[in-house]
Amino acid sequence: MKVMECYFPSFYGDGSSYEINNIQEVLLRMVGEYEQKSEASQASSKLEYYLEKPVIPRVENFDILTWWKVNAYKYPTLHCIAKDILAIPVSMVASESAFSTGGRFVSPHRSRLHPKTIEALMCAQSWLWSEFNGINNPLVKNLIDGMELWKLEVGRK
């Protein structure tokens, strides 16, 4: 959430708080659905507890799968969500093909996830790891250039 609170104002301007609230609502609904499956309760307080924890510093050899395995007892519902989401194979692609409408990386027949969800996950991974490589990363530069062009095009309409 902290990453979104930092970057969304530059992407959405005044509408950033609306977009962040939408994502928070989706997260709460997702946690609620998983909670119902496990017959647990207090979905929102558990999610808030997790989100209020200090952010783990980024290190190059960090293993997210091991972290979730070790912390499964603290966050059982989020652990189940992480297992489902982290099981999705993610490909490294150029930003042009990530945003193109020409083809999809995973067809609806091969995955239960909607193609837009897969595309969002791929972009999110790229954005999050770009912090490691800094703003000089060509992918980040392409994304920034694309956003600036998009803003210009939207402004003309």
UniProtKB/TrEMBL annotation:
Organism domain of life: Eukaryota
InterPro entries per the UniProt record, alphabetical: HATC_C_dom, RNaseH-like_sf
Domain HAT C-terminal dimerisation stretches: 47-128
GO molecular function, one term: protein dimerization activity
Pfam families: Dimer_Tnp_hAT
Name used for this protein in its record: HAT C-terminal dimerisation domain-containing protein
Transmembrane segments: none
Classification of source organism: Eukaryota, Viridiplantae, Streptophyta, Embryophyta, Tracheophyta
Species of the source: Dipteronia dyeriana
